[in-house]
Design a protein that fits this description.
Length: 194
């Protein structure tokens, strides 16, 4: 092969490489705007968390997460986010002399001294210790016997952004659930706070 033929072959190879390089650069330039407009992982996760909260709160409104927001610690199969606190069974006597019982739970925030205890199906009624073995309704001063005290879990209620705003009662019939918050499931909570 002569020097001229070798030079022509090298020029052809160099020309081919330059053409490929130009094609690659043009392709990259065309794809660059697409890469810049992709959603970030954080934005996708936030959208997913919002969807999860809304879905769970719709499920809660339609089916409810159990009896009066309280579950005993050993109760299995509960999928809603709950927090550990103390519960009591109280007993009173009605106007006809019949006894009745109901449950109260201790405020898990510990924000009051003495501690507030709330009736499981009515958070507007506050109970406090009055004497050994007794509690009193602080609104009407009616006294009740403490039957037992035990560990229990109560619902944690969230707003639509996933912020904790309340505990305990969940009741769709009172029309104020948007004010007191709604529960979400453990799987949803895990996806919001990994």
């Amino acid at each position: 092969m002569s020097d001229k033929e070798t030079r022509n072959e090298q020029e052809n190879t160099h020309s081919h490489v330059s053409r490929n390089r130009r094609t690659l650069i043009k392709s990259a330039a065309a794809a660059a705007p697409v890469v810049l407009t992709l959603r970030s992982g954080a934005a996708a996760a936030l959208a997913s968390a919002d969807t999860c909260i809304v879905r769970d709160q719709q499920i809660a409104q339609n089916t409810g997460p159990g009896v009066n927001g309280i579950r005993v610690v050993n109760n299995q199969g509960d999928t809603w986010v709950r927090t550990l606190t103390r519960c009591r069974t109280l007993q009173g006597t009605n106007s006809t002399g019949n006894t009745f019982q109901f449950r109260v739970y201790k405020d898990p925030t510990g924000s009051t001294t003495p501690a507030n205890w709330y009736k499981a199906n009515n958070e507007n009624k506050i109970y406090r210790n009055s004497s050994p073995g007794k509690m009193i309704n602080i609104t009407n001063n009616k006294e009740f016997d403490i039957i037992n005290t035990y560990d229990c879990n109560i619902l944690v209620l969230f707003d639509q952004n996933g912020n904790v705003i309340s505990f305990g009662r969940f009741n769709t019939s009172n029309g104020s659930d948007n004010d007191v918050g709604l529960p979400i499931t453990n799987s949803c909570w895990a996806s919001i706070n990994p």
